[in-house]
Amino acid sequence: MRRLLVAAALIFLAASCSVPTEDTAQVISDDDLPETLRRDASPTTTTTIARSNEPFTYYLLQQRAEQDSRFVVAVTRQIEINGTRAEQLAPLFGDDFVTPEEEEELVNPTAQLDLVAIDITRGVATVQVEIESLTDLQRLGDVAAQLVWTLTELDEIDAILIEVNGELQPIPTQDGDVSVSVRKEDFPRYNRDFEFPEAPEEPSDTDS
């Protein structure tokens, strides 16, 4: 009889320690689950904030048909609204700024320079650029015209200075080289509608 009781006790103990099966699985209360696994939990969403862009006007140059000079031509590109002024101007200094459709007529002398920074003080933007050799700096007047037309599209800028390799550069204008800030009015020849004065007629043989 004692052996029978011991055997029964061992069978009961083994049954109580066995691994639960599907028949013995129990439902876990929502209160014991992590919040993300509860049936009444709100679904989580991931929000991606897109960068907002806006159109901005840059200026390239086109060669005049009958004059050894160029005039500015407006082109539009998309820029990031919250970008710094240097970031917004930087595309103009890229070799690939001019599109294949534009390159047949338009040129971009500013691409010969590397933009470092722009400092804006009291309406004057000092454009700091670098170039490997100053002897490679050609047609600074063209570059200045591009920059002054482009930057004065911004309400806070009225004039510009150009600093090359850490030094302010005299800027060629219609009235000669100037070492002060320049405005669009200093480059009238770069206006598409500028009328060049007619060259004086040379005296003929009959006038002598």
Give, in spatial order, the strands making up the sheet with the most strands: 4-5-6-7
Shape: elongated
What is the helix content? 10-25%
- Strand share of the residues? 25-35%
Structural class: alpha+beta
Distance between the termini: 157 Å
Low-confidence stretches: 4-10
> How many distinct helices?
3
Strand count, sense and barrel status of the largest sheet are: 4 strands, mixed
Extended strand count: 9
Mean pLDDT comes to 81
The succession of helices and strands, N to C, reads HEEHEEEHEEEE
Radius of gyration: 38 Å
Description:
The protein has 208 residues and is α+β, with helices and mostly antiparallel strands. It has a domain at 53-190. It is built from 3 helices and 9 strands. The strands form 3 sheets. Strands 4-5-6-7 form a 4-stranded mixed β-sheet. A 3-stranded antiparallel β-sheet has the order 2-1-3, covered by helices on one side. A two-stranded antiparallel sheet has the order 8-9. The longest helix is centred in the N-terminal third of the chain and has 15 residues, at 2-16. The protein is elongated. Residues 4-10 have low confidence and may be disordered.
Q: What can be said about this structure in brief?
A:
By secondary structure, the protein is an alpha+beta fold.
Question: How are the SSEs ordered, and which strands pair?
Answer:
Layout: H1 2-16, E1 53-63, E2 70-80, H2 85-89, E3 106-107, E4 114-121, E5 124-130, H3 140-151, E6 159-164, E7 167-168, E8 171-173, E9 176-178
